[in-house]
Amino acid sequence: MSLYLTYFIVAAGLFAFVAVFTMFGVYAERKVSAFIQHRLGPTETGKYGTLQVLADMLKMAQKEIIIPAAADKILFLAAPVIIFIGVYLGFVALPWGPGLVPANINIGLYYVFAIISIETLGILMAGWGSNNKYSILGAMRSAAQIISYEIPAGFAIIAVVMIAQTLNLQEIAMQQGVLSAERIKFLGLWDVTHTGGLLSWNVFKAPHLLIAFVIYFIASLAESNRAPFDIPEAESELVAGFHTEFTGLQFALVFLAEYSMMFLVSMIGVVLFLGAWNTPLPNLGGVKLADWTTGPLWGILWILFKSLGLVGVQMWIRWTLPRLRVDQLMNLCWKVLTPLAFLCMLISGIWRLWVM
């Protein structure tokens, strides 16, 4: 009984975190966009507009859930739930610190990418179930984009897995700091096993992994339908894309899934490339900064700091770059990112055999 209670508490804790992050993310995005584009952002509701998100939540909770007369009611009602659950379950295998992982799965990385791909199914269900030509067009665009960009993202991730030799995300995290049981070399040359810090992160273990990280990050923007890859919900021609017909709490679930996905892909990138919960501070002689700043509470702090940093970059990019056309989007995926990611994967195999 106590085991099931633990599962319930962990699940509730993850949901609470996702909800709080979404509230923070919506407010932060409005303020960041206002700062970048020299606008004010929310100012009236609460001090500095801090209660604006809460007001929006109350507004959506009071709105009626309208089901179009010609819609497929089962698909229409189930789609937002499936979209959110597909993203929410991805957090299960992600490590938050030494010994802090909801489910320490040996194939954790495989599980995460299998489960979040369900989101594509939910998006197709939302478009088809709405029986709206604009929603269907947005859903088809989204499915094509997500499936296409999973290819370079997958190759970039395999490049890391070939270096780490494991799919367990906690083990990948352990290999990037002073707690590593394996020898760590900075760029394959300098032994930094006991130095730790920034120098032991995967992105610095081999030169090509920096390129793999950039490829993954670009692909993650497309996976999240974030600008400049937001053609599935391009307001200029599709109004709102696949969620045009959704109102009230259904729309809120879709929105919750989008911001959850932003944090999820950022956290996966941090775990795979940027040291996960390991400290960026190295041991310098007798000053053992890495040893002092490594632990469960420090781990939560570091992984939040790094993941939120990547989320901030996502927001920065959204309000800086113009939206890509669909042909530009596919050219970037198939002609640039996929060959580069495949090359990174090949180099990882050679690096593992001859350098490590």
Give an overview of the whole structure.
By secondary structure, the chain is mainly alpha-helical. The chain folds into 2 domains: 19-62, no CATH class; 69-355, no CATH class. The chain is built from 13 helices and 4 strands. It has helices at residues 2-36, 52-62, 73-88, 108-116, 118-130, 133-164, 169-174, 207-223, 235-238, 248-273, 289-292, 296-318, 326-354; strands spanning 185-186, 190-191, 283-284, 287-288. Strands 1-2 form a two-stranded antiparallel ribbon. The chain has a two-stranded antiparallel ribbon with strand order 3-4. The model has no long low-confidence stretch (mean pLDDT 90).
Principal-axis shape equals globular
Question: Residue ranges: pLDDT <50 for 5 or more in a row?
Answer: none
Share of helix, binned: 55-70%
Number of discrete helical segments: 13
- The whole-angstrom Rg is 21 Å
Question: Keyphrases for this structure?
Answer:
356 residues; mainly alpha; 2 domains; two-stranded antiparallel ribbon
Element layout with pairings:
Blueprint: H1 2-36, H2 52-62, H3 73-88, H4 108-116, H5 118-130, H6 133-164, H7 169-174, E1 185-186, E2 190-191, H8 207-223, H9 235-238, H10 248-273, E3 283-284, E4 287-288, H11 289-292, H12 296-318, H13 326-354
Antiparallel strand pairs: 1-2, 3-4
Helix pairs in contact: 1-10, 1-12, 2-10, 3-5, 3-10, 5-6, 6-8, 6-13, 8-10, 8-13, 10-12
Short structural description:
The chain has helices spanning 2-36, 52-62, 73-88, 108-116, 118-130, 133-164, 169-174, 207-223, 235-238, 248-273, 289-292, 296-318, 326-354, and strands at 185-186, 190-191, 283-284, 287-288. With 356 residues, it is mostly helical.
